[in-house]
């Protein structure tokens, strides 16, 4: 069985042809969910505006807070970033490793 890559949600049309939003999912090579929509762009041409976006980093460190954020390869996240249509700036959360 494959992974969900796209889903149309909202609206009264059961076929999904006039959905209120299209939700896109992305995964890394290990099959772990990395993105729900695109936190960098909630507006995509030809599609309704995304209401929410979420990104999960596992082994990619985008902002190392004084050496406290380390890449993780065990399924734990190093950073999450989320955004909504009402907040134009994505909100990051770093996961610092305590020593």
Descriptors for this entry?
99 residues; mainly beta; 6-stranded antiparallel sheet; flat; 6 strands
Query: How many beta-strand runs?
Result: 6
* SSE pattern: EEEEEE
Total number of distinct structural domains: 1
- State the secondary-structure class: mainly beta
Distance between the termini: 40 Å
Strand content: 35-45%
The largest β sheet comes out as: 6 strands, antiparallel
Shape: flat
Overall average residue pLDDT: 77
Describe the protein in words:
The protein is mainly beta. The protein has one domain (6-94). Helix content is 0%, strand content 35%. It is built from no helices and 6 strands. Strands 1-2-3-4-5-6 form a 6-stranded antiparallel β-sheet, with no helix packed on it.
What's the SSE blueprint?
Layout: E1 6-9, E2 21-27, E3 33-36, E4 52-57, E5 79-84, E6 87-94
Antiparallel strand pairs: 1-2, 2-3, 3-4, 4-5, 5-6
Give a short summary of the structure.
The protein has strands spanning 6-9, 21-27, 33-36, 52-57, 79-84, 87-94. By secondary structure, it is mainly β.
